[in-house]
UniProtKB/TrEMBL annotation:
Family matches, as Pfam families: FAD_binding_2
Record flagged with keyword Oxidoreductase: yes
Originating organism: Virgibacillus sediminis
Domain spans labelled FAD-dependent oxidoreductase 2 FAD-binding: 6-436
Keyword Flavoprotein: yes
Protein name in UniProt: FAD-dependent oxidoreductase
Keywords linked to the UniProt accession: FAD, Flavoprotein, Oxidoreductase
Superkingdom, taxonomy of origin: Bacteria
Cofactor(s), by name: FAD
Length: 459
């Protein structure tokens, strides 16, 4: 048996932030990753992190506060979120942003994205961020990272403290003893047909594109020791992916947040396009057809953001994933939708934009930000869109100190969790950037709490 102060299970952003924090606190730490390399689902994300009041925002003349960010999170989550977790995020987010910058994470731009009342989606290159933290971690002599090392079970001592990690490495069973605590950062269960079938059978029509290792083992291991679950009723798919995303490239576009509309195969709108893309996914799955389309004009196309994972429409056009035509008639013919229905839908939408009385209640581009524009400037564009199971956003019940809780809200001795594996934070919706944001914030919180160095202020 090998002894460490901390054992971290999972090598995505939450796990790597935890490892670096632990290393800088002087702890002997082992990070176990079951895949052949670190990164997990973090590298598949939309590359946004939700922060407020940053120097980057101020340089661009944007006014934002932690209070505004918290209000948006709670509103988007239908106030089904754990308000204490969200408040903790608000309190710690700016310090974490500065910590990420200090550790070499490059923030590239700021965008207005799902659920934000002001632009606060700080864009990163996920691979660059993961590499920066991996390099920091392996440079510290007190941090050990082991890949190809799947964890099998967790062991509890006679006094009820979860302190042993049983894992495999090189075909051998091994045991690590965590003298202080175990931190679970092993992601969700988007790739587990069994768990999705059990918890979310309504998502069977989604395409599955989550991290290959996200099969819920960490959740199973925690539940064996009495963990409770949160947000399971709100499991949703993510709207915005092209059907080819089931393959190696996860092509995605959120043109509706720049002014596109969403139609079904009958050429009709069916939803307020400014909603969280989780709620849009729910609406799309209620349609009988398995595909929908985003429709926009040159006014929206001109807002393409080169290199952005969600808004680089020109790149998708070059790849042949976006249809283009000089008239709505010809566009409808390309996507096999009734031309009359599409023209009527666009005309009704434009009329609603002009008089401020949209049929579905759309008055902004996303959440409370931006003004819709009429779709009338040729050429016109269409992007076939499906709902994907990218991340589960539901999981273990945790405290603001990242302690894993039992059904009575009591901490399970020795067990902490952060990142996608933790539930209770998002509630009924999802604000873009909050997943990577909570991974970094609560990855650090878990370590500080485990080492007795976290100053609790949220009660």
């Amino acid at each position: 048996m090998d002894d460490y102060e901390l054992v971290i299970v999972g090598g995505g952003l939450a796990g790597l932030c935890a490892a670096v924090e632990a290393g800088e606190q002087g702890a002997e730490v082992l990070l176990l990753e079951k895949e052949g390399k670190v990164g997990g689902s973090s590298v598949l994300s939309g590359r946004y992190m939700a922060f407020a009041g940053t120097a980057m925002q101020k340089e661009q003349g944007m006014e934002d506060t932690a209070e505004m960010l918290v209000d948006d999170m709670l509103e988007v989550g239908g106030r089904a979120n754990d308000e204490k977790l969200v408040a903790a995020y608000g309190e710690l987010q700016l310090d974490t942003y500065n910590w990420l910058v200090e550790h070499g994470v490059e923030f590239l731009s700021i965008q207005a994205v799902s659920g934000h009342s002001v632009p606060r989606g700080h864009t990163i290159d996920s691979n660059q961020a993961i590499q920066a933290f991996y390099d920091h971690a392996v440079s510290m002599p007190n941090v050990t990272i082991a890949v190809d090392s799947p964890v099998i079970r967790l062991g509890r001592s006679a006094r009820g403290h979860v302190e042993q990690v049983f894992y495999e490495q090189g075909g051998r069973r091994k045991t690590a003893n965590a003298a202080k605590r175990i931190v679970l950062t092993s992601g969700g269960f988007s790739q587990s047909k069994e768990l999705l079938g059990h918890f979310a059978p309504h998502l069977k029509r989604t395409i599955r594109i989550g991290g290959p290792g996200n099969k819920g083992e960490g959740i199973r291991m925690a539940c064996e020791h009495g963990a409770w679950m949160k947000d399971i009723p709100y499991l949703s798919g993510t709207y915005g992916f092209h059907p080819t995303a089931e393959g190696p490239e996860k092509s995605q576009a959120l043109a509706f947040y720049k002014g596109a509309i969403i139609i079904n195969r009958r050429g009709k709108r069916f939803v307020n396009e400014s909603l969280s893309y989780k709620l849009l996914g729910n609406a799309a799955l209620r349609e009988k057809e398995n595909s929908t389309y985003q429709i926009w004009d040159q006014t929206v196309m001109d807002q393409s953001v080169p290199g952005d994972k969600l808004y680089d429409f020109e790149r998708l056009l070059r790849k042949g994933l976006i249809k283009k035509a000089e008239s709505l008639q010809k566009l409808a013919e390309q996507i096999d939708v009734s031309p009359d229905a599409l023209r009527r839908t666009v005309a009704e939408y434009n009329e609603g934009v002009q008089n401020g009385e949209d049929e579905f209640g759309r008055h902004t581009l996303t959440h409370h930000f931006g003004k819709p524009t009429p779709i009338r400037t040729a050429p016109f564009y269409a992007f076939e869109t499906k709902v994907a199971m990218l991340a589960t956003y539901a999981g273990l019940s945790v405290s603001t100190k990242a302690e894993v809780l039992n059904p009575y809200d009591e901490p399970i001795s020795g067990l902490y969790a952060a990142g996608e594996i933790a539930g209770g934070f998002h509630g009924a919706g999802y604000m873009t950037g909050s997943s990577l944001g909570k991974a970094a914030i609560f990855g650090r919180v878990a370590v500080k709490s485990a080492l007795g160095k976290f100053q609790q202020t949220i009660t």
